[in-house]
Structure formats: structure tokens, C-alpha cells
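@channel sequence for tomorrow's demo:
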Amino acid sequence: MVSRVRVWLNRTYAENVFFMEQLRRNPSDRAVEIHATHGDADSPVLAAADTAAMEPEGLSPAAYVEYALDQCVRREIDVFVPRLHQDAIVDHRADFEAVGTKLLAPTPEAVAVFQDKATAYQAVEAVGVPVPPWWRVRTADELLVAVEQLEADGHKACFKPAAGAGGVGFRVITRAPFSMSHLNGFPSPYVQLDMVLDVLRNTDEDVDWLVMPRLEQPEVSVDCLTGPDSRIRMAIGRTKNGRRRGFTLDEAWLAPARLIAEGFGLHHLSNIQFRMYEDRPVLMDVNTRPAGGLHQLQLCGINAPWAAVQLALGEDPGDLVPPFLGQDYAVVSAPRPVRAVSVPAHADEVPALPSTRPAVAAPAAVGEPIVESAGAPATATA
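C-alpha cells (generated this afternoon):
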């Protein structure tokens, strides 16, 4: 009899409720139990998991590794999918394997390269992957030089943190004065150059930004699955052009993604994003984790989460080639259950709401979801 697989997702994005559902609906018909931890008691991943716990706050990376190892031992975790403190965790891969847990994460070297966007751009450019023009800026004067150069070349300038994810801190520079036009309609990413310069000249906080031209659509996110042997098993592009979404196998996007995934040790699941600069695709960002939209590949007949778990367990799923490309689609929001709000955050062990659990094919041996608390809930990070 094939044993069940126990998978842990630590503080992760709300969209990964779909990642969890795909694991349960795996084509191998293997029993899967999912453990989830988070800093936000209202994260839907806690309610969607079979067991869940609140994460302690304020841990250093080293202390978090110790916490994670303890979770793996107590929960008998077979596969750990780390997002929070991924860099510290992958440095201790041998320690996790010693307690019987496989990490679904890249090599330490890959995580280090792609934590910093400037380092990443230099590294991929050296192997022939096109990148947009960019400047690393830490002062108002450096920002002004970069903006003026981009504008002289006919581009709109934008900036984002050199280290960050999910579009946090992304802004587009404008010289238009602040007016009622900026107060009408929805908020926009545009910020006035003079206001940004004024803030930089009067702050005590350090900034570390990348300034580059605003890149054009389409945006293509290539979801990659790469084995520990550094051979890629899957590369499928998800296209974004305004509201419209779709899929592509165009080598203009997939070839540079394969080069990055295989060449830099991006083992297991990664997401490599491109946009257009002038008339060619250029790298925008590299995520060393599963993308929040990875589940959308099910529209192409692909269950990437389960194939990744198989690879982590040493079971090669073979090459994942979509049997078809799904039709274009749009993304809409939908309600998801959270745990009961009446439960005290400091309770040691409390049941979630079983009646609101998504109807997914979970193994019969799994009990009702359990939520544990190891501290007060914090602001959601995902």
C-alpha cells in the first residue's frame, strides 16, 4: 500500500489554496495531507489545510529554521514548500533531509542570486538573456540622473525595490504636477518626480531601488519545473495583456526561461517573468518559488504542484507537455472560508469550520482541520 504524503506550506500566498487542492486531486490518486502555517489567523490557507498553526512572530532566520525543523519532526512532513525565510531554510537542506523532509525549493546559490534584482540582472545578462536598461539608486541625485537618461531616450521611468516580490514598492515616475486628475478614479502607480526627490532628500531611511524603463505588455510568466539534476521538465508561459490571460509555448519566451532555470539551479518550481522592451522580450523578474497563478495551468491539463512533489520525493514525473492550450480567460475573485472568528488567538488547539471546507478529494483517513496558535496573529504577509 502506498503511504500518504504530508506536505507543509509555510507563510504563503492566499492563492495557494488552489495549489493545495491540486495536490489533493493528484492524478496518481495518492493520499495527501496538508499542513499550513501563517502569521495571519484569517489566511484562507489555514482553513483549507488539514492541520494548521499560527507561526510565532519575531524569530530570526536562524530561529525560524529551528522552528521549521521542529514542525517537520512533529508533523512528520515529507515535503516542505518554504516561502518565508526560504534563503535560510535552503542553507539547511541536509538538516531537513536528516529528519526525513525533502525541500521543494531551489539551491542556496540560486536563491542568493535572485534575492537581489541587480545581482540577478547582471548574472542573466552574462549568459545572454536580455534585460532592460537599469540603474541602482540610493540617493535623490542618482534617481534624477537615471530618470533624465530614460526620458532622453523616450521612455517612462519606473522604480522598484532591489529586493522584493509581488509588485510591492513599484512606482512610475511622472513630471505632471499633482492635481485633481490624480484624485479622480482609482489610485494609480504614478508618483510625481519632485515629490519623490523631496522625500529622498529629507529621509533618514536607506533606499535601494532599481530604476528602469516602464516595460510594455504582453507580460509573460513562464512557470518552470526543474529536477535536482538541473534538467527542466516543464516550461509553460502564461500571458497577460490587460484583463486578458492566455498561454504560450513560443520559444521567444520559453528559451531564455529554460536557460535561467537550468543554468542557475532553479530546482523544483520557479516563475520567470518577461515583458517587452522596444521590440524584444526582456527579463523582468525571477521568483524562486511557485507562482500564485500556477494553478491556472490546469486549464492546459497540467498539475504542476503534484509533479513537483513527485520530483522532491525522487519520483520523476517525466516531461510535462500540455496536451492542449486552454482558451483565453480572465481572473476574478471568489470567496474562500477562514477559520471561526470566535476562536481565541491564544488557544492551544481549536477546530476550524468543517462545514465551510472546500469540496475537494481528500483521503478518508484525514480528520477535521485543526488550527493551532503559537502567538497572536500579525498583519497578513500574503
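heads up for whoever presents: The two ends are 37 Å apart (CA to CA).
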